[in-house]
Design a protein that fits this description.
The protein is of the alpha/beta class. The chain is built from 10 helices and 8 strands.
């Protein structure tokens, strides 16, 4: 989340690469796997957070493109590519969809620029998520996104890496005030369980990266102030509009969730 770097530092862990490792990716280094293994070894079951989050994001993107006319997305803190990136999910239904990915991790930028070679309806903007004006005014954003038309703004697993003093609500408010009515906001966020698992996971992230803030459902909902929160509200990610049998989370609305699956929440809102 810091400023753009020109080189990849394989000696310091990266949030994006640790997440990639937990999802089974290969774009990570020993230092990232060391942190990831703390979750795998000492917090067994915690990897479910990453998978539940990714599945909810996929469902949200699919729902927006199949039920609304929104055909442009801004994915803030997008992280490393996975099997189903936002543009891939959206363009299966609506090939004309345009997506701006925003991240400052050098490895994300390398992959993102390779992505540009194969898809001219995507851009990668190397601006910190805490600088929304810089993102909005970036030439690549301006080229791809028409701010006179509704936009889907994606905050997937990023606002919990913005500490309270960095004003995460202000970041959301900036976008809320600068997109037209009919725009959508998707948020997924670490969900405080007031339990030992939450405390330990938060300790690992804060000790490693100096960030990682678990928030309550009410605190997460407050981030969407001024927007119309859509059903089912802020809920554990597997409970957010669980999909069909083709979705690995399709039973999330029926079965008992693990303690870890309850520690990532999701919600979607619309600007009236």
């Amino acid at each position: 989340m810091t400023g753009e770097s020109s080189s990849i530092d394989s000696t310091r862990p990266s949030i994006a690469r640790v997440y990639d490792y937990l999802l089974g990716g290969k774009d990570n280094y020993a230092v990232d796997r060391e942190i990831g293994d703390v979750f795998k070894r000492d917090l067994p079951g915690s990897v479910a957070i990453a998978f539940a989050n990714r599945a909810a994001l996929t469902r949200a993107v699919r729902e927006i493109v199949t039920t609304t006319g929104v055909r442009q997305f801004i994915d803030l803190g997008s992280g490393l590519p996975t099997a189903d990136n936002v543009h891939q999910v959206a363009q299966r239904t609506a090939p004309e969809t345009r997506v701006v990915y925003v991240d400052t991790d050098p490895q994300v930028l390398v992959h993102g620029r390779a992505l540009l070679e194969e898809n001219d309806r995507t851009r990668v903007v190397p601006v910190d998520v805490r600088d929304p004006e810089g993102i909005r005014d970036h030439p690549d954003t301006r080229e791809l996104i028409d701010f006179d038309r509704p936009v889907a703004v994606v905050f997937s697993a990023i606002l919990h890496h913005v500490n309270d003093e960095e004003d995460p609500a202000g970041i959301v408010r900036h976008w809320r005030d600068r997109v037209p009515s009919g725009s959508y906001f998707f948020v997924s966020h670490f969900r405080s369980g007031n339990n030992p698992e939450t405390a330990e996971a938060e300790k690992v992230l804060q000790g490693t990266f100096g960030r990682g803030r678990w928030r309550t459902d009410a605190e997460i909902e407050a981030l969407l102030d001024g927007l119309e929160l859509l059903e089912p509200g802020i809920v554990p990610a597997p409970r957010w509009r669980p999909g069909t049998a083709g979705d690995p989370q399709h039973l999330g609305g029926e079965r008992e969730l693990t303690v870890w699956e309850r520690l990532i929440a999701a919600g979607m809102a619309r600007k009236p």
